[in-house]
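Q: How would the C-alpha cells look for this protein?
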Amino acid sequence: MTEKSTFHETKEVTTRLREPLKIKAVPYRGKEPGHMIEITMNLSWDQIDLMTDKESDIISMIENMKTLIEGPMQSSYLGKGAIKEE
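A: Here is the predicted structure in C-alpha cell form.
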C-alpha cells in the first residue's frame, strides 16, 4: 500500500507600521470632474480612538489635502457622496 502524502504550506505576511497614514488625491473625470481623497490607515488599536480628535494627524491631513486640491491644483474637491454609482 502506498501512503498519500499531505503537503501543507502556510504563508504569513507581516506589515510594519512605518507609514501609518497615507493620503492621495485621486483624479475623477465624469459629470463633475475633480479630485477625491483616498486615505490608507495602518493603525494599531490604541491609535484608532485618537483618529476623531480635532487635533489628530488625519484631520489635519484631510484639511491640507482639500486646500491643495482647490488651491495649487486648481481643481474641485468632490467631497463625501459626490460620486454615485449608476
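Residues 50 and 56 are 7 Å apart (CA to CA).

Confidence is low (pLDDT under 50) at residues 82-86.

Upvote if useful.
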